Amino acid sequence: MVHGIFVERLNRFVGIVLVNGKEEKIYIPNTGRLSELAISGEPVLLVPSQGKYSHKLLYFYYNGKPVLIDSTASNGIFSALVARGMVPEFRGLTFIRREPAFENHRFDFLFRDVGGNALLVELKSCTLAWKGVASFPDAVSSRATDHVKALARAGGGTMVFFILHENVEVFVPNYHTDFIFYETLKKHYAAIRILAYSVRYDEEFAITSLNPVKVIMPPVRPAGLYCLVYRYDGCERAGSALGSTVELKKGYYVRTGASDDDVFRDIDLLKRKARRVKGEGEDIFAAMKVVADIPFVDESIALEDLHDLLVKTGGSPAGTLEFMETVSLYYFRDNPLRDRSFWDRVLEMRYGKYRSF
What we know:
Blueprint: E1 2-9, E2 14-19, E3 22-27, E4 43-48, E5 55-62, E6 65-68, H1 74-83, E7 94-98, E8 101-102, E9 105-106, E10 109-112, E11 118-126, E12 128-130, E13 133-136, H2 142-153, E14 158-163, E15 170-173, H3 179-187, E16 193-201, E17 207-212, E18 214-215, E19 224-232, E20 237-241, E21 244-248, E22 251-259, H4 263-276, E23 289-296, H5 303-312, E24 316-320, E25 328-332, H6 340-351
Helix pairs in contact: 2-3
């Protein structure tokens, strides 16, 4: 394998990595956000590729440990471990084939039990984890939601969360990012079998064994807080924001707010409004581009916690919007989304309470 230093992600499939002192475009075989992994300056491992780009990224490092991000490799690794008897829950099952069809869906595996019953299995690679807590998905996945519904209609298949971090103890569905997936999984929790496993790597980065992980399905409603991250590329000027005057300068702005009933609805409304008013008047958000939204679906988190998060990771208050005391604006010269400490604090706020489970 080839060692490199990650520079940036250009789109879902292409990134830039420093290899032997030279920047190269490389292929990223994962469509997830990988926000907490794809940090500039972090070491990565690559392999030569015969495709459009000379290398394919296989591993990010997270807190000094490798994390396989090649989503095309997970099925082969898991099936090999099952064949070797390394997954106790699958002992006694007979493998039939890959990519079985049900209705208009394809699943990863078909097994039969000793009674001859067909068992559909869907494997979901999970790259998001923080201090022993893993979560899926790291981006909205309507396909994953559809798979849950189809498994339930099929009479109770199995969904496996294949966690590509070591030393994970707890899995929780990522309701902060994809609340519909969480609601669907919770609704069908008794109808399908849900398993989660954490991997173990050897010295050559091969996955040699799996450890079972506890699955938690907490009761949650979609209320909470949010951060909307904007980029401003214009010149320095004064602008208005719903009653307040803000001195705009090139960089990034983070808008925080609260929702008592549906944080995802409120985020969507703000993003759609930004598109509607593009180029109109002096509203500062019309001059900016939304680059990320970060919900916190947790009613125990306060706006003061978001203030601490943003100030301690380099943000400076840029004003409180007069129309609502619960909305504030912060300025960052550099992109906070590329800051490891920013994501560590985000993940702590989202998943810290599950470390005691």
